[in-house]
Amino acid sequence: MTSVFVSHCSEDNYFVDFLIELLRFHRLDVWADRTNLEAGGIFPADIEEGLTTCGTMVVVISQRSTKSSWVTREVAHFKALDASRPIIPLLLDGKTDPDQIYEGLGQVTHLRCDESLLGSLRELLRLLGRPLFPPVEKRRTPERRSAHRREIGRA
Fold it and tell me: Residues with Cβ < 8 Å from 13, sequence gap 6 or more?
C-alpha cells in the first residue's frame, strides 16, 4: 500500500481533513498529525517515524504554512532521509512562494489547487497510482432494482 505523509500547518485543517479522507477513500495509507498523533506520545519522535516510513510526501502550501517551522522541518527531514522520494506540493493560493518553506521546493512542479481543485486532486491521485473515483464493479443483473423491489412494485 502506498504511504503518504501529509505536511501542513494546523490553520489549513479545513482542506487537510478533506484531503486525508479523499486519499483514504482511494485506499492510500496516510500519515498526518491530525490522525496519527496519540495522547501521551512524544510527537517529534512520532513525526520522525512517519517521515521515515512514508514513501511520498504531500506538502500543503499556503500563506499560513510558510510561517510554520514544523512544515519546513518535515520537508527538510524527509529530503535528508532519502532525497529520491517524491515530494508533491499542493499550492492553495497563487500568492505563496514554495521556496519560503524549503529552498528548492519552488523548482518542484506543484499542483495549483487555486486554479483547479478537481484537476489538482485528479493529478495527485494519478501520481500516487490511483484513479479519481475508481470504477465500480458491474452488477450481476442488468436490472437496477433487486428482485424483492420488483415483486413489491408488482403488488
Answer: 34
